[in-house]
Amino acid sequence: MKKILKKYQAFLLVSLTIIAYSFFNRELGEKVFDTTLFQLKEMLLVIPPIFILLGLLDVWVPKETMVKYMGEKSGVKGILLALFIGSAAAGPLYGAFPVAAVFMKKGVKFSNILIFLGAWSTTKIPMFLFEAASLGTRFAVTRLLIDIPGIILIAYVLNALIPKQEVQKIYEKTE
């Protein structure tokens, strides 16, 4: 029991704080509760399809194929594929991390995983189309042309700064 309480102590502390605060400001407490339920429902709608697709990726795509196209010796091809997959993805950013874990399991190069995560969070195609319609094509294209080299640069800088032993530990956790 103590182990469970320790594991969930942050969650319990926040929950108790919100409940206590709700006694002083009922309207805010209800709003927090409604927002929490909304987010939970949204996660339950997004996560299962992602895990189904991940299961299919894990079974259908051989490790050798992933290493060939996105592994250590993939070069520009791996970068472009990571950018495309990240940009074409749908769903919130928390959906990208299970995909990244499967990529690690399949032998994808660490910098390509970082590029994929950066693309998922920054260069999504629906976001580009929304920006083009709302803020103008010039703005959307300019932002994209700045973001893509920025994502690649950040990925390679992080790859150089993180010790190889740390990267290896991350990969081992996905096994």
Helix-strand layout with pairing:
Elements: H1 2-7, H2 9-24, H3 26-60, H4 63-70, H5 75-88, H6 96-105, H7 110-122, H8 125-135, H9 137-161, H10 164-174
Helix pairs in contact: 2-3, 5-7, 6-7, 7-9, 8-9
How helical, in percent, are the residues?
over 70%
Total count of strands: 0
Global Rg: 20 Å
Task: Quickly count the domains.
Answer: 2
- As a percent range, the share of strand residues is under 5%
Mean pLDDT: 91
What class would the helix/strand composition place it in? mainly alpha
> Which parts are unreliable, with pLDDT below 50 for 5 consecutive residues or more?
none
Shape: globular
The number of helical segments is 10
C-alpha termini separation: 29 Å
The ordered string of helix (H) and strand (E) elements is HHHHHHHHHH
Major sheet details: none
How does this structure look, described?
InterPro entries: DUF318. It is a multi-pass membrane protein. This is Putative permease. The chain is mainly alpha-helical and 175 residues long. It has 2 domains: 1-46, no CATH class; 61-174, no CATH class. It has 10 helices and no strands. The chain has helices spanning 2-7, 9-24, 26-60, 63-70, 75-88, 96-105, 110-122, 125-135, 137-161, 164-174. Helix 2 runs antiparallel to helix 3 (26-60) and helix 8 runs antiparallel to helix 9 (137-161). The two termini are 29 Å apart. The mean pLDDT is 91.
